[in-house]
Design goal:
Two copies of one chain form a homodimer. Chain A is an all-alpha fold and 109 residues long. Chain A has one domain. Chain A has four helices and no strands. The longest helix of chain A has 32 residues. The radius of gyration of chain A is 17 Å and the shape is elongated. Chains A and B meet through helix 1 and helix 2 of A and helix 1 and helix 2 of B. Chains A, B: This is Fluorescence recovery protein. Chains A, B: Its main location: membrane.
C-alpha cells in the first residue's frame, strides 16, 4: 500500500483517530447484526440459509482485514469508511486540514 | 467404512429408503433453520454472531457429508439418523428385519 506523506500525527490526532475508528467499527457491527437478524427471520429455504452463511463468511473476512489501525494506513482506512458511510466528513475535523483533504480525495476514487 | 453384509436390497426397500432419507434431511434442515432463527434473534454481542457463524460452518459441513445415499453405506447413515432422532424406529419397518436389526444395533454404539 502507498505510504501517505501528510504531516506528522499529533498525540491528540492519534487518540481521536482511534476513538473514531472504534466508533465506526461498532457501527459496522451493529449494522451487520441488524442485517443478519432481519435476513434470518425471513428465511424459509435452506438455500437462503447457506446464502446467509456465505454472506457472514465474507463479511467476517472483510471486517477482520479492514480495521487496520497502523498509522501508515489509517488515512486509507478512513477513506474507505467515509466512502461506505461508516464515518462522516464532519467527524474528521479533529485532523489537520491536509489529512482531511487526503481522506476526502481518496474516498472519491 | 465397513461394508454391511445384509440381504440384497429390493427395489421397494431402495425406493422407501430414499424417501425416508429425504424426509430426515428435511427435518434436519427445518430444525437447523429454527435453531439459527432463534439464536440470531437473541444476539446482542458480535462474538455471538461469530459463534453462530462457526456453528453454521460446522453444520453445513456435517450435513454435506452426512446424507450419503450409496447403498453400501445407507445402513450406517440410518443408524446415525436414528441415534440423532431424525428417524424413528417405526419408520424403518419397510426394511427387511435383518436390516432393521443392524441399524438399531449400530445406533446403540
Amino acid at each position: 500500500m502507498l505510504q501517505t506523506a501528510e504531516a506528522p500525527w499529533s498525540q491528540a490526532e492519534t487518540q481521536s483517530a482511534h476513538a473514531l475508528f472504534r466508533k465506526a467499527y461498532q457501527r459496522e457491527l451493529d449494522g451487520l447484526l441488524a442485517t443478519v437478524q432481519a435476513q434470518a427471520s425471513q428465511i424459509t429455504q435452506i438455500d437462503d440459509l447457506w446464502k446467509l452463511h456465505d454472506f457472514l463468511s465474507a463479511k467476517r473476512h472483510e471486517i477482520d482485514g479492514k480495521y487496520d489501525d497502523r498509522q501508515s494506513v489509517i488515512i486509507f482506512v478512513f477513506a474507505q469508511l467515509l466512502k461506505e458511510g461508516l464515518v462522516q466528513a464532519e467527524e474528521l475535523t479533529f485532523l489537520a486540514a491536509d489529512k482531511q483533504s487526503k481522506i476526502k480525495a481518496l474516498a472519491r476514487l
